[in-house]
Amino acid sequence: MKSISKAKLPFASVVVFLYLLLVLMNKHEIQMIHESVDVESRENDDDAGTDDIESCLRPRENRAVSAKLRPPFVNLGMPKMGSTSLHSYFKCGGHTSVHWLCGGGKTYCGDCIEKAIKSDLLPLPYSTCKMKKMASYAQIDRGPENLVQVNYLNEIVSGIPNATFILTFRNMTNWFRSLTNWGTPENNMRKRFERANITGLPEGVGKNVSQFSSFYCEYVKRVRKEVAKYPGRHELIEIDIEDPTVGRQVEEAFGIKHTCWGHKNTAKHNNTVS
Hints:
By secondary structure, the chain is of the alpha/beta class. It is 45% helix and 10% strand. The longest helix has 45 residues, at 11-55.
């Protein structure tokens, strides 16, 4: 009885089959790697976004300076972020200082600065309002209705020959609560921000902590970028007014005793700082 021989595939066909199988496996492996990289990239982007938000809502370590910082000291921070404390601090240290009102208390410092900018003058209050030069300008805005430090940031930083700019920080939830509690329920400062149509905070925006955090984050980045354009000409001091060591920090920067620092204009019902 003849044996039945098993069918055999040609050698070339086997080689082609194995090659195609290898190609398909490699494609699948590459796709898996790409998907893994994409997921990791998205996770890193999310982390970077979180880090970016956090880094612009807290002060950077201030650059060491060989001598005590010199005036004019110009606060670029927001209302309810320690401006009154800065004003009292510099006055305690023997410096002249104005806060919010200029020209002998007859006009707003922010309006004086805006007028000076529009007249191509030095963007400080004494350029257009009847007053002497001051060492400290602790609050240069008129409130949300005229935040000159936001709306005219470039003109202020570029227009002052030499200055020590100050940028204040605080917990965003505390700031939001402070704005909400300042004024009457119908016209509190938080609502004034929402109505004012500020650069970076258009009208109708400013209803919650998240929106204020995004607004201040972008503003902080603008300030840092603008001041960095003038190395050796300006200094930027960043302080967290709620940091328990803030007194020591400002003493190191300005040479005024830390005991001069204290929370001023504090509302009794909400533990807020102006």
